[in-house]
Amino acid sequence: MSSDVASIRGGSHSQWAVETHGLTKRFGENIAVNDVELRVPRGCAFGYLGPNGAGKTTLIRVLLGLTRADAGTASLLGYPVPSQRDRALARVGAIVDEPRFHGHLSGRQNLQILAAAREPAAAGRIDSSLERVGILHRADDRVSKYSMGMRQRLGVAACLIGDPQLLILDEPMNGLDPAGMHEMRDMILSLVAEGRTVVLSSHLLDEVERTCDAVAIVDRGRVIRQGPIAELLSGAAVSLEVECSDPERARELIGRLALQSVVELTPSGLTITLPAGTSRDVVAEINRVLVEGSLSVYRLQEIQVSLESWFLQVTSRLGAEG
Amino acid sequence: MDAPLSPLNALSGRAAVDTDRRGSWVPTYRMVTTRFMELRRRRGLMIALVVVNIGIPTVFLAIRLLLHAVDAKTYGPAGGYDTFTNIVAGVMYVFGFIIAATLGCTAGSADLTEGMFRHLVVTGRSRLALYLARIPAGLAIIVPMVAVGFAVVCMVCVLAAPKVINYNGVSVPAGLSQTGFETWAGNHTNDVICQFGYGPKANVNIACRYNPRTGGVIDLNQSLGKSGLPPTPAQIKSDAIRIAQQDYPAYKLYFLSPPISLMVSSGLWIELEAVIGFIVGLGLASLIGQRTVSVILMIVLELILTPLFSRAHVPHMINVQRGIVGLATAHLEPSGLPLLFGGDGGGPSGVRTASLLVPETRTVAVLVIIGWLVVWTGLGAWRMMTRDA
Q1: Of A102, A119, A134, the CB nearest to B116
Q2: What confidence tens digit (pLDDT) does each residue in B35-48 have?
Q3: pTM passes above 0.90
Q4: What does the radius of gyration of chain A's CA atoms come to, in whole angstroms?
């Protein structure tokens, strides 16, 4: 979305849907959110990733004014929170943790309660929101009879009744079956296509990679990487898989090259891990050395780095456990 | 999931946000009505409240009606003044408070325990407005519910009132003028002279012979008139009329059915008790975030602490005792009702001679009640505004 459109839609001229500076939240000795600097551009799907206990949900709670920060500043859609949280949240929809509702009421009645707390027009969006998340046919059933996935959808509908410019969804895929996850992904993409910003907190890295344009990685309360996915993955190590007539000799030949590589034998051949930023010429050089060494090369393939493997590389905790 | 939502309308959306006064502490009408719906749809709770507040008095009165219809000589009329005063002061006062407190505790804790509080906070609406919306919504349920229960009691007590007054064990027609009462006394000399109470002004010197089956009967052999002879029928009638003249002020306070003024004041009084129960329950539950514990505390307050500290005069705590809201409402009790928490008086005579209550002026009682309402609303709202969601 262009910055002009963003400035019209936003409460201020900020180009960021979410912006934090030095945001910190402590629970006693434990620092759940540690000096977080985060900038989420408008009009994109943004993934907020981290292992369990990394502080993802706490950051969301601080942003939404559900709990107070101990230090730092934050703004949503250009409005500072908590000082102007009423204006900021007026165009924000959010699911935090597992969405829970009054079980004795129907889905529609629960949304009526939430719509009453929003602007008068919100009540008129209830049916379209329920239809959009695919539970309009169950709208008059009591929520206590809903499955986990249906409650998740109702949570998204609760976000949509406010016609939000920014949606913050905490683990929205939880409880959804594969078809439901597919539908949720499509819906998120369609929301982004309408010019809305979606911040997605999840540990389902594959889903995030398919859905989001940019991500931030959080570990132990601190944002350790953020940016467009393609840009971040370009900084990951390069892996090559090689199938040839003599893997042992191939290993020896590659070892003679002055590359900072790690070569491992596999049942099908070799796996070569090269440093991040290795040019394609190096790959061609490896191929040339193997051929000139009288080896038959059946396959030489650069393996695309997935968000999951990159995530495992950069998160210190999983790295330490590995 | 791809049905179209209304298109993102930036300008109209922004204008709406700027004018919907979301940060205002005043709840909107729609917030109140949806909160009312949320409470009213709690089927189990509503049934329990109706059973306690309306069902129990109704069943009690229905049984009395039935028994009276089957055997009128053994079982007295179902309604009447005494039945009314005893039910209002003994049952409806306590039940009204408890059901109101239960509803208040539910209203104060349901959003927290059922996970809706977070959704509501995320709307950006003022937390104070979210809290205050519960008050009119809850009162819109509890006030009519108490009124319906009270109306049932009033209706039965008026329609099924006895035809005659039982005055000192004697059946007397109701609503007689003083002349009529004296005429009736002259025609029922045995009952009046042997059963009615009288003082020295009556100057009666007629003896009665009492029989457990027939009651009192004039014993002419043991009685002496002014001449030293047994009294003549004219003297007996004259004495009976003098007794009637002396008893008329007390007689005219006896009613077959509760007077309208007493019903109105009693209704307002139990509604006040219900409002207090709801507001305090709401604040307490919001403060501690749990319904069950709050309800237990409210019941303990009403059934144990209030009776105990309303009667026990502890010298060093007397002002603390005066701060108990139940004592304050007891001091505002209509004079026609039996005294709460013990003591003499009340009832038809309307005279309270020996109240056991810790003394308190009506002004202090009113201030104590206002204080409780304000403080508990403040505590509940403060917790609502500062609680992590």
Answers
A1: A102
A2: 999 999 999 999 99
A3: no
A4: 24
